[in-house]
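[job 0412] stage=complex_fold ligand=glycyl-adenosine-5'-phosphate status=START
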Amino acid sequence: MSAPNIETIVSLSKRRGFVFPASDIYGGLGSSWDYGPLGVELANNIKRSWWNWAVYERDDIEGLDSSIILNRSVWKYSGHETTFSDPLVDCRDCKARLRQDKLDTDDAGKFICSNCGSTNLTAPRPFNLMFRTTIGAVSADDDPAALAYLRPETAQGIFINFKNVLDTSRRKLPFGIAQIGKAFRNEVTPGNFIFRTREFEQMEIEYFVRPDEVQRLHQEWLDAYLEWIKSLGISAENIKLYEQSADELAHYSERTVDILYRYFPEREQEEKQWDELMGIANRTDYDLRVHSKKPEDAEGKRINPDSTEDLSYFDPQTNERFYPYIIEPSIGVNRTLLAVMMDAYTERTTDKGETRVILKLAPDLAPIKAAVLPLAKNKPEIVEMARRIKKDLQPSMRAVYDDTGGIGKLYARQDEIGTPFCITVDHESLEDNAVTVRHRDTWEQERISVDSLRGYLADRLA
Ligand code: GAP
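[job 0412] stage=complex_fold status=DONE, emitting structure tokens
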């Protein structure tokens, strides 16, 4: 089972402190979200899982953390200033502002307004998605010399550091650079909770390869990501591949395969249930070429007269110099978090006929690993023992102490936020120095000695 729709996750998130509407006390700010106490833990655990898998467990990836605001030339030569736009249309009837490429068409091929159903729409015009800002205390808002952008992808920060990383790490092809960071896009139609927002976070790898290896390694990355996504607890039946058609490909891409997640299971038409979780692109040698000072166009003019560096690679085996091809797996933190929560969502009916929510998160992603609960909060020895156990666990795992309700209510609360283990300290614990460990997914209980508790939990969380 997974969540029946995104709304279920919106409501759980707000109720329990995963995600809140941003700027709420001032009426909100369309499609902006803040990550609360549990949401920030879950997002950090996803990012940690990815960094471990992508950087530490492989031998061919280095990490990077580049700036959000870059020299404007980066966006000029990457092509973003001229091509990073969506086709904007206005509905003449209801005045909605829409992305034409996301609209359905009628039998005559006319685009239909998703707000009111009218086909009375304006012709499309390109709307650049980059957020603009100005640099420097003295600059006027419209001073073109001070114009800068908030990055719409982390990727460009990697390309322009290719030589720095290559020279300092002494890497040979194939190798990659990984980065996690915020990206900003002035989306025309943000929405569906954290699925499409104007501020979001990406986890990107730019993997530099010889041109003749690109197809094989592209496939390897695809297979690797499918496995990693499943390792997050996302079931295979809720993911599928989508090969982008030639007219969908970005200007730099020779081939892009998207991995889709079933974000909209409530939709009647099966093909409308899916949307993009991530993409894996073959960007060819486009990026390193356009940021290099040497390449020339057909008339012998430098394509980039502003760059001071050549980002080619010298292959010591073949004595050849060339611009490496790039395979780019790019995945959003926020879309991953949403898919993880949707897939983990289950409901169970108690003997009394009550419906309980259980968030069956993979243990390493769970915001809280263990909740220590005293059975009698008016008994100081029990409270003291429970607090001590929490303190002992905390250095090795996220643990909490909670005495704010009856035991049934406390269990239900922890199930709903995905805590894999509840540890109950009772009267007997004072005698036998043991506690009851309750398992989230089965509700089974075991008696475990306090001395072996940390090792017992660590084994099961690994
Ligand atoms: N560097 C390549 C690149 O940025 P993209 O397909 O535009 O490619 C990659 O973005 C991923 O970033 C997407 O698959 C998605 O997970 C995430 N993403 C993109 N736009 C987003 C948005 N407005 N809100 C949330 N996540 C977004």
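Residues 153, 155, 185, 187, 196-197, 200, 202, 204, 276-279, 328, 330-332, 334-335 surround glycyl-adenosine-5'-phosphate (CB under 6 Å).
[job 0412] exit 0
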